[in-house]
């Protein structure tokens, strides 16, 4: 770490941010305050603080939804804001997360236990092509190696320092000492201090050179649970490599891209699903409101039919209400499409105004009023019974789970509609009710499912009052 940077006073606060899945309004909430401290202290503390992902509540519409990113903001304004997208596609469980953190804390021990092997391999690598290795070192690195070896020299630039080091004709043993000392900062302060979970390979390749960054990352001792992080890091550096293992490494890189792509898509799906969930919730609420309006209209129409004052004001009101119902019906259909599951639920639906119960003592009805009419029965499966009965009218049966074209076509032909109370989905029932209001079609809500009884009820309903 840059020493000037390390001493800067910062005050970081962490915010959970994102657009509402329901209304798209932007919301953010502070979830953690690091307090005022130096940048170095803050970096240390970041290792130990874990932010739990909690849902945000929209200030505009009240909907709860998962945030998109965590934002780190310095209220001293010395460090630019840092935003980190929450990877829903690869979130770890709490246990995995704990193991992950423990491994990060144990990284020094893991490194020390294999440090001598690592340095041996790393210096072997440097000796293989000493010129290429030295040509990636900076003046500062070479100076620190000279200091360790007691060599005194005035170095002006990176170029000058490299030339100076190459011209010294060091023995292999000295080269090993030199290489290790020159790389102490890179290995300890970058790779080890940051840990595999935070490696930034592209940055390292720019600062320290691509060759040694590749080698060090491939061979650095990391805790087992962080191996996937090594793979991720290494893959970023081998996209266009041409070495001996180029084929395998390119393959690794491709596979890694696929994994990263899948994670990204999973995160996108996660948010899309949240938006859909919110839409469905809104749809359900609107649908309930629409049903309520239909119920009110039914009551109003029934009341006005009973009074039938001929008041032109009443007639105008009814006309207005009817034109409203057709808008409502369109909305209901749109919402029902949005809610495939809700529309398929069958329970004992509220079937609206009930017919006066007919008793066994009622005189048998003549079917005369049904002559030439079309009777539409919705719910259950009455088709077989309907085709066997000797009725003066045409009977169309629609099963109560069917929505869409078939139901609409049947309703259009109906002179009278019979809704079978216990064999129909909410959606089909409400569609029938709205249609009845809109078109002035008589409608009966019937519990009997015997076709003869249904015909009785229908004939009675169609009798002139
Ligand atoms: Zn909202």
TrEMBL record:
Keywords: Coiled coil. Residues 245-300 form a coiled coil. Residues 343-367 are annotated as: Disordered. This is DUF2325 domain-containing protein. The lineage of its organism: Bacteria, Bacillati, Bacillota, Bacilli, Bacillales.
